[in-house]
Design goal:
Blueprint: E1 2-15, E2 18-31, E3 35-39, H1 46-53, E4 61-66, E5 69-70, H2 76-86, E6 87-91, H3 102-107, H4 117-130, H5 146-158, E7 164-168, H6 176-191, E8 195-199, H7 203-206, E9 211-216, E10 219-225
Parallel strand pairs: 3-8, 3-9, 6-7, 7-8
Antiparallel strand pairs: 1-2, 1-4, 4-5, 9-10
Helix pairs in contact: 4-5, 5-6
Length: about 230
């Protein structure tokens, strides 16, 4: 089953009198359980594609089906619901809330689930344990290393059991050792059946993916296949 399907997807930004064509009629299908990397030079459209796949923006034309549902023309409120329930985000800058501890940060997406407090805390604890932060649950982000903060971000992304995990340069702010640990977590999640989509400029990150989608000038230039991936 194609968990992600886009048809003739285009995005045009109006910059005064000038039209900027960020994406040009892209067709793409991603099967459930795949590990996909998206690469391309600056201005290729990879960030725009990530924003559309993450329901952070709407296409100018074309269709985007997430889990079989056409989400292309949903309004902001509906897109917010989709993001909260179906998509797990991992950002380069972690995007943690400084005033909240590990458990409270992981719980944030669960507010969309109308989950009781006891169940929510239990789920957050389970996710913290899974990413190796069982002894850091009461710590705030400033008390954690970069690698530990990214582990919190991964746990938060998984808390709502999303259809897809979107990672934007997930190791960009990390040293090589911490980055390797984060990539191993993503590979393990993929082996367990999660659909992982990573935007990266790092070929070492992309090598772990089963397929690498290369963008150029808003179009898919080519798709590089690695078989089962280099996990």
């Amino acid at each position: 089953m194609a968990i992600v399907a886009v048809e003739k997807l285009s995005k045009v930004y109006q910059m005064g009198m000038v039209e900027l064509h960020a994406l040009r009629s892209i067709d793409l299908k991603i099967e459930e359980g795949k590990y996909i990397a998206i690469m391309g030079p600056s201005g290729s459209g990879k960030s725009t594609l990530l924003n559309l796949l993450g329901c952070l923006d709407q296409p100018t034309t074309g269709h985007y089906y997430l889990g079989g549902e056409d989400v292309s023309s949903l309004d902001d409120d509906a897109l917010s619901q989709i993001r909260g329930k179906r998509i797990g985000f991992i950002f380069q800058s972690y995007n943690l809330i400084a005033q909240l501890n590990v458990i409270e940060n992981i719980e944030v997406p669960l507010y969309y689930q109308s989950m009781g407090e006891r169940e929510s805390v239990a789920r957050a604890r389970e996710m913290a344990e899974m990413v190796g932060l069982g002894d850091r649950m009461k710590h705030r982000p400033t008390e954690l290393s970069g690698g530990q903060q990214q582990r919190v971000a991964i746990a938060r992304a998984l808390a709502n059991d999303p259809l897809i995990i979107l990672a934007d340069e997930p190791t960009g702010n990390l040293d090589s050792e911490s980055g390797g640990e984060i990539l191993q977590i993503l590979s393990d999640l993929n082996r367990e059946g999660k659909t992982v989509i990573v935007v990266t400029h790092d070929t070492k990150v992309a090598q772990r993916a089963e397929e690498v989608i290369h963008l150029l000038d808003g179009r898919i230039e080519r798709i590089e296949r690695h078989g089962s991936g280099s996990n």
